[in-house]
Structures are given as structure tokens and as C-alpha cells.
Amino acid sequence: MQVNMIGWKGNHIAHMNFGEHAKMYGSPFWNFHRAALQKRLLDRAVELGSKVLVKSRVSDVKFGEAGGGVCTVLLHDGRRLSADLVVGADGINLAKRECLVGHPDKPMPTGDLAYRLMLKTKDIIKDPE
Ligand SMILES: Cc1cc2nc3c(=O)[nH]c(=O)nc-3n(C[C@H](O)[C@H](O)[C@H](O)COP(=O)(O)OP(=O)(O)OC[C@H]3O[C@@H](n4cnc5c(N)ncnc54)[C@H](O)[C@@H]3O)c2cc1C
């Protein structure tokens, strides 16, 4: 099955062939709630020994401050956490990337936006297209 994403002017934005993806990855296409995926990732991370800290807002990241490749993460409450590797995964505003590149680096609008809505199946069936 192929799904097409069409822009409001009728232009093609993207498409995806679920059958081809199934062949490429050797698995059928799965659809699931993101909370279920997040829970599985969290459980596995904890199982592998990860320590999860909440209420730990990052205010800055210092690279190689103490020499070598060690990074230090500064938290709003003054705590400092050091590690060999820091992965910035703080979402669209990418503040941690700005710490790395050393200047403001805001997200760039692409001009494409997607709006979602829900329709009743009986209303969809009434429309021949
Ligand atoms: C209403 C809505 C519907 C969406 N629907 C879909 C969909 O159906 N399918 C899809 O694929 N995508 C969807 N998206 C997009 C999807 O949610 C994002 O692409 C995805 O969440 C990005 O993941 P991320 O891990 O990069 O960032 P995020 O999910 O934004 O996670 C960033 C995390 O970093 C934390 N953080 C930020 N700053 C700091 C800081 N200074 N210190 C510590 N922590 C910090 C935040 O609290 C957050 O927990 C939707 C988005 C929205 C808003």
C-alpha cells in the first residue's frame, strides 16, 4: 500500500510504500502508541543500568573544560555532571546544539506544515473520492 502526502496546492510532498518498507526491514509495518514505545525504551535503558534524573534542567554544556574529552553538563540547580559523551536530545529548540556551535542556531521553517483532524468513518464513506 502506498500513502501520499499532498501539499495544499496539490504538490507532492512525500510518499511511503508500506510494502517496500516491510521488505527492506524484513518486518511488517507496526503502528503503536508513542507512550508504549517510550515506556519500552525507558524500561530497557534502566535494565541496562541507566540512571534517570528528573527535575534536572540543563542550563549549559562545557566541552573539554577540565582537559581531555570530558564534557560537563551544568544543571539549573547548580549540579555539575561530567561524562565522556553527552547526547543532546532537547527537542526542536536545540539549545544544546547552540552550546556546541557557540552561537544561536534556531530551527528553520521549511514552509511545510501538517494539520491533523479526525473524521467519522461514516462521513468518509459518503464521499466517493
Ligand atoms: C501535537 C504534536 C503532534 C505530533 N504528532 C506526531 C506524530 O503523529 N508522528 C510523529 O512522528 N511525530 C509527531 N510529532 C512530532 C514529534 O513529537 C517530535 O518530532 C518528537 O517528539 C521529537 O523528539 P525529540 O526527542 O527530538 O524531542 P522532544 O520529544 O521535544 O523531547 C525533548 C525533551 O528534552 C527536554 N528538554 C528540553 N530542554 C531541556 C533542558 N534544557 N534540560 C533538560 N531537558 C530539556 C524536554 O522536556 C523534552 O522532554 C508531533 C508533535 C506535536 C507537538
TrEMBL record:
Residue ranges the record marks as coiled coil: none
Classification via Gene3D superfamilies: FAD/NAD(P)-binding domain
Alphabetic keyword roster: Monooxygenase, Oxidoreductase
Gene Ontology MF annotations: monooxygenase activity
Highest taxon of the lineage: Eukaryota
Family membership: Belongs to the paxM FAD-dependent monooxygenase family.
Matching PANTHER family: FAD-BINDING DOMAIN-CONTAINING PROTEIN, MONOOXYGENASE
UniProt-recorded name of the protein: FAD-binding domain-containing protein
Top-level taxonomy: Eukaryota, Fungi, Dikarya, Ascomycota, Pezizomycotina
